Amino acid sequence: MAENTRASLKGHIDKLVRHLEHENPELLAVVKTFRRLDKVSYKLGLLDQTESYAEDVTWWPLISVLGTFSSGKSTFINDLLGAKLQTTGNQAVDDKFTVICYGGKDKPQTLPGLALDSDPRFPFYKISRDIEEALEGEGSRLDTYLQLKTCPSQELRGKIVIDSPGFDADDQRNATLRITNHIINLSDLVLVFFDARHPEPGAMTDTLEYLVAGPLHRPDFNKFMYILNQIDNAAREDNPEEVFAAWQRALGQKGHTTGRFYRIYNRSAAIPIEDEGLRARFEAKRDEDMAEIEKRISELDVQRSYRVAGKLEQTAKEVRDELVPKLTAARRAWRKRLLWLDGIVFGAGLLALLVLSAALGYWQGLSFEAPWFAYLSARPLLLWAVVIVIAAGLFQLHRELRRLAGRSVLKNLQKASTPGATSERLANAFERNICSWRPVLMDRPVGWGPLSARRLDAILSDADRSIQALNDRYADPSGNRSAQGG
């Protein structure tokens, strides 16, 4: 079974390499460097031989569309694709995360959530595990949360779009938040939609807290675009500018101090605006903001390349600067507890044996003339049998003490780690240290040493070179290439 899984992983990586050879050759070196990082982590026990860090990356540009119910997310996606793919309406029309990708068939197809959970090419590979952690028993009910749709739109070639259910009023809120966090982490662009019609921004404290205040602390906050949709309805107000100002204040109160959001609406579904001057202003603003959104989408290939190279660097640094030190500290704590347990248990056992043997008269002034010693000396095989039995008993007792000391340290390690794949990998690596017969007095974790450290440094250097290669392609600070017509 493991051999089949390893073969499946190799097949996935080979397929990815063939795709990148034609679509983005700059990332070929990144794939190979990911595999070198895998080998370091295999030795540390952070990865199983059937896993790869390359599976943690979405290699296609990913756009996620979040927002409240009936905020026009599906209508926007349909306009973007030039196809009526998503169901639209004023009420909640879809309660699933829908992954949308290009399909060569003449008409769209809808596939079950299993298609995403079992295919490492998509952003929800093995997501059932995360859902199960959020809600016990729900991991087997993927179709409740996910679906895959294909569409022959040329706008989708080389991209993946994710349409999310409405953020608020969700019966499975924990699982929804877990999946939402997952896609935010993977996305190159996050479009957050609000409905200009309702509700008032002041009534959306929880939603704004999650969708605005939370992302502000992310290093990739610039990938979020906040969109006030269906602004044509504001034309009915006596002072439409006050509608915009209210939303700007709401975003500002959550820390988004620029209050920047994009104001759009669907022209085919817009309400008539009788005042020509007002209509011209609304249309101009809508066209200006739509052009900026479309520009960001068109630039995703470049953003994706930097994201993937950055993920390589981030993962290598995480292994070197975070996981290895945590493993080292955990191993030291485990060693200290084990030595104390060994000392207490074996010391108590030795003391009890001395007291018992003295009470039974086995010691005659520590003389080798003792009857029991003479008896065993005359029977060497029996003597060796006794020695072996005692050694085996002590060995087994030491193994149990290793596990006992390890379990307590492992609990503390898990409490100090954020739940997720990294936490699981750290726990697996530590358990390997417990099971390994590496000398207890050594500080270094299993699989770590000067050679592994040098390999990680080389991987980080290669990650930097990959980013520099992207800079060489997309930037020209000196202006030499421009001057040469390059």
Give a quick rundown of the structure:
With 486 residues, the chain is α/β, with parallel strands linked by helices.
Walk me through what this model shows.
Strand 6 (189-195), helix 7 (205-213) and strand 7 form a beta-alpha-beta unit. This protein has 486 residues and is an alpha/beta fold. Helices cover 55% and strands 9% of the residues. Helix 2 runs antiparallel to helix 14 and helix 10 runs antiparallel to helix 14.
Helix content: 40-55%
Oligomer: single chain
Structure class: alpha/beta
Mean pLDDT level: 77
> How far apart lie the N and C ends?
52 Å
Please state roughly what percent of the residues sit in beta strands, choosing from under 5%, 5-15%, 15-25%, 25-35%, 35-45% or over 45%.
5-15%
User: Tally the helices: what do you get?
Assistant: 15
Please state the overall shape, judged from the principal axes of the Cα atoms. elongated
Largest sheet: 8 strands, mixed
Largest sheet, order of strands side by side? 3-4-2-5-1-6-7-8
Strand elements, count: 8
Rg value: 31 Å
Low-confidence stretches at least 5 residues in length (pLDDT < 50)?
Answer: none
Give the ordered list of helices and strands. Answer: HHEHEEHHEEHEHEHEHHHHHHH
Give a quick set of tags describing it.
single chain, 486 residues, alpha/beta, eight-stranded mixed beta sheet, 15 helices, 8 strands, 55% helix
